Amino acid sequence: MSKYLFGIDLGGTTAKIGLLSEEGRLFDKWEIPTRIENYGKHILPDLAAAVKKGIEENALTNDDILGIGLAVPGAVLNEKDVAVCVNLNGWGGCDVAEVFSNLTGLPVKVVNDANAAALGELWQGGGKGYKSMVMVTLGTGVGGGIIIDGKLLKGAHGAGGEIGHLKLYPDTEELDTCGCGKSGCAEQFTSATGIVRLAKEMGMTDADSKFGFLSSKDVFDLAIDGQEKALEVVHCFAKEMGRMLASVSAVVDPEVFVIGGGVAKAGEFLLELVQPEFVKFAFPACEETEFHLAELGNDAGFFGAAKLFVD
After folding, report:
1. Strand stretches in 158-255, DSSP E
2. What class does CATH assign to 129-295?
3. What is the DSSP string of 95-113?
4. Residue 10's Cα: distance from chain center in Å?
5. From CA 227, how far away is CA 199, in angstroms rounded?
6. Class in CATH terms, 4-119+299-307
7. pLDDT digits 0-9 by tens, 58-81
8. Whole-model pTM over 0.70
9. In Å, how far from its chain's centre is CA 33?
């Protein structure tokens, strides 16, 4: 008889929870608020209560559940030890798997949220059918998840896949400081935040937006409509994105790049911009690497977290 899995994607505002089968069929999903006050002391008890409620409402018992996969916004070692998560008010710094398992009575494995999204897309999304994939999440920052021969590349310090911090330019006083404390990182040019910064540097203003403040969506919408300045911005973005992914491909040589996150809502227009720039910079043997859009949206994280128990 098939068992069930819980996948949880813990974010700074909400935690997304999914109940899935071993085969990847989604039975139920819901969200709860993430309470980060008092260094996040309520986070795991709240999640445990949500899991217990999900078991009860779906007429299950603990014996029906293989385990809980938990995706967190921070570095993770050994699928259990979570580094302090800055955007969760300093929560973490402990064996989260053990604490959460004690609260739920179920096995727990923990994974970085970007890596979880990659696992989810490989399992049931834009990377389905491949064994080696790089997931790129373009949002406020740039997240990455690298899977080679079906296995996550986690790194010795839990920082594998931090492709947004590849150096595109050397540290100089002329460049803004990245959130990591350095400068010249890919994230400064290829994230939603970076796109808006580029746009304003190149002469676009909040007056170009329908809503009074310029966003990356405005830039892409205007570019799709043929606005000259917006087209100039997105071509600059695509060049930096191509440069970043060419560097990644020269090291891990994936079969496919899967692009997700808010910026990826630009769809095929985005891929048509980035792929030719990638080819310009890529090592010749990597030029045929495929590009796909992510398919699971905000569900990718909990799909990937649950996948930890499938293997």
Report:
1. none
2. alpha beta
3. EHHHHHHHHHTS-EEEEEH
4. 12
5. 12
6. alpha beta
7. 999 999 999 999 999 888 888 999
8. yes
9. 19
